[in-house]
Each structure stands twice: as C-alpha cells, then as structure tokens.
Design brief:
about 350 residues, alpha/beta, Rossmann fold, Dihydrodipicolinate Reductase, domain 2, 9-stranded mixed beta sheet, 6-stranded parallel beta sheet, globular
C-alpha cells in the first residue's frame, strides 16, 4: 500500500524536512502540493515533482484522492487547514505549534476522534532512542515520584523574529525556499515568538518524556525591541505536585550550537539529558549510573544534532496509513502544549499565575 499525501504549505521547513521525506519513502506518494505563494509552490514542484499543484488547499482536497495531509502553513492557518483535512477523513501531520489556542486544539482532537484519524505534531525529538529511554525509565519508576523538572532551550532565531531571514540562511539551511520575512516576526501570523516557535518544541519534549500534565504557570517574557517574545522564563505546577521550570531564549550566537538540556529529579534518583550532544545519564540513589551510548554523532552543518530526525514525523504518518501505526507525537500532546503556552502568555500579561486550560483526549 502507498500513502497518498497532499501537502499544504511549501515554505522553508516543508521543503527541508517533509517533502524530502516523502521523496525518500518508498511507501509514500506526493499526490499534490498547495500554496498561495506561487514562487514557493513552483520551486517546490520543480524540485519534488508532485502529480498536481494548487494555489488553494481546498481545491486540492476537493480534487484529489488522499490518505493523509501535511499542514506546513504559517502558524495562524494551521487550525483552518488541519480541520478541513480531518473533515475529509485524512490523517494529518501538522507542524508545530499545533494551533494557537486551546479551543482550536480541542476542536482538532474532537474532529480526529469523530473521523477515526490520527494527528501527528511535528516534534522530531519524540522519535529518538534516548528520548524513549527517558520515557521508559520514568514509566518504570526508575527515579520514583517526579519532584522537579527543568528544560532549557537556547536557539539561533533572533534574526527570524526581526524578519532578517537572509542573515541566517546558512545556519537554517534553505534548500529550496526561504522562510518568509513575516512568518516568525509578525505576531498576527506567528502568534508569538520564542514561546510558540521554540518552547512548543522543548515543552512537548519534556511532557512526552515525563507524562506530566501542566496545571498552573507563572511566566515572564521579554521582547527586547521585537514585536514578539525573545526570552521566556516559566514556573510550572504539574498534576501530582511536581514543580518545574521551562526557560528559553532565541538569542544564541549563530556561530555556536543550539542548546537543549533537561534535568528530571525524582524521589529515588535523577536524569540528566544534554539533547543536542546526545549525553544521557540515569543516576540512582545507590550511586549507580546508566549512560547509554549516543545513537549517532552530531551534524555540524546547520547546528542541528543528528538526534533531531527531521523525517521521523512524516515517516510515522506513512506508517499510520500503510500499517495502522499510532502517532508517536500525538495531538493530545500538542494540545497540552498549546494550552500551557496560552496560559503562559496570559500570565506574562497579567503578572499573575494562570491556570492551564484542561485538555482531554
């Protein structure tokens, strides 16, 4: 069986990650692409040769027989496109952030449930062996009850928030199409800055590994002259009493590697995880240490570690269609992150702790 896939949005990340993954997967067929940006659409079509191309995703859905769709539009349009795809009975891979409001996230979960379809959110870290080791250790009670968790993400995106997309072309890698000047800099399109663009990654990674559900958040954010947030500091109370901090900045010097570090402390031990450098260790109360060897070395070309498998969400989508697999970065996870970020942005405005809207599957 071949998965017939339609793609909505042919910008930077889609032409770097999703379309190459479709091309490389023998069980995937690029049935059509849709993008109102004619230059992006034409360049993507010339490079990846879809069977059809459209300026409007609705025309693609009306005219093509599809099994699944990739939603790689700008953030503000994720909900509209993903909702229509689910109504058409398609499995959906939606890029992060899943959507920009908890209401929209809940509605996508409802539509997926009614259609009996899977949602995948574009979180490649969920698919690494080391991440799965952490998830298994915690699930098996290796470090006991969770007491405190910490995540730090420092990334090379300041210029994207300024709209200076050409400055970071070498770092980001634009293999076919560049990112749009307003894609990450205009809050009406992006929905925010470091929170919705980057903490959506690191928070999803933390929640995936730990199984924690956020209940309350107090957040401080700073724009530093931008129209969107550049620096975020969040204190989070999770269901069950665990506390945590989630911090992130987009100001990493672009000649230096990005940083993602997780520290997870329990009643019977702790876990240290330097994600980018693939350094993972489990520390037990008896003094023993488990430190799995990294699965692969680092890819220095774009400062993305090879522990970040860009093609994994798309390949998961294909396995869902062809083998009946389940999503390894599911909609419920993406929705919980959306809910956390919604409360965090509200907290940054009110100066008070805010309750995180509850998300249920």
């Amino acid at each position: 069986m071949t998965a017939r896939i339609g793609v909505a949005g042919t910008g930077w990340w889609c032409t770097r990650a999703h379309l190459p993954a479709i091309e490389a997967n023998p069980a995937a067929e690029l049935t059509a692409v849709a993008d109102p940006n004619e230059q992006n659409r034409r360049r993507a079509s010339e490079r990846f040769s879809p069977a059809a191309e459209y300026s409007d995703f609705r025309e693609m859905l009306a005219n093509e027989t599809l099994d699944a769709a990739v939603v790689a539009t700008q953030h503000a349009f994720h909900y509209e496109v993903a909702a229509e795809c689910l109504r058409k009975g398609l499995h959906v891979l939606v890029e992060k952030p899943m959507v920009l409001s908890s209401e929209h996230a809940s509605d996508l979960l409802r539509l997926a449930s009614e259609a009996g379809r899977e949602i995948i959110v574009g979180y490649p870290w969920n698919y690494t062996a080391q991440t799965n080791s952490v998830r298994e250790w915690i699930g098996e009670g290796e470090i006991g009850d969770l007491l405190y968790v910490h995540s730090l993400f420092a990334s090379v995106v300041w210029e994207l928030y300024r709209g200076d997309v050409d400055v970071v072309a070498e770092v980001m890698g634009y293999p076919v199409n560049p990112t749009g000047q307003s894609t990450y800099s205009d809050p009406a399109i992006a929905g925010g800055g470091q929170g919705v663009t980057q903490i959506t990654h690191s928070a999803a990674h933390l929640l995936h590994m730990t199984g924690l559900a956020p209940m309350e958040v107090f957040a401080l954010m700073a724009n530093h002259g931008l129209d969107v947030d550049l620096v975020n500091a969040m204190s989070v109370r999770f269901e069950g009493g665990c506390l945590g901090t989630i911090g992130s900045t987009g100001s990493t010097v672009r000649t230096q590697p990005e940083i993602l570090e997780c520290r997870i402390y329990g009643s019977r031990g702790h876990i240290l995880f330097d994600v980018m450098n693939e350094k993972l260790s489990l520390h037990r109360q008896d003094g023993s240490v488990v430190a799995p060897a990294p699965a692969s070395g680092a890819d220095s070309e774009f400062f993305f570690s090879s522990s970040y498998p860009e093609d994994a969400p798309l390949n998961n989508l294909v396995e869902i269609v062809t083998k009946g697999a389940t999503s390894r970065s599911p909609g419920i996870l993406g929705a919980r992150v959306v809910s956390l970020l919604e409360a965090a942005y509200r907290s940054a405005q009110t100066g008070q702790p805010e309750q995180v809207p509850e998300i249920t599957s």
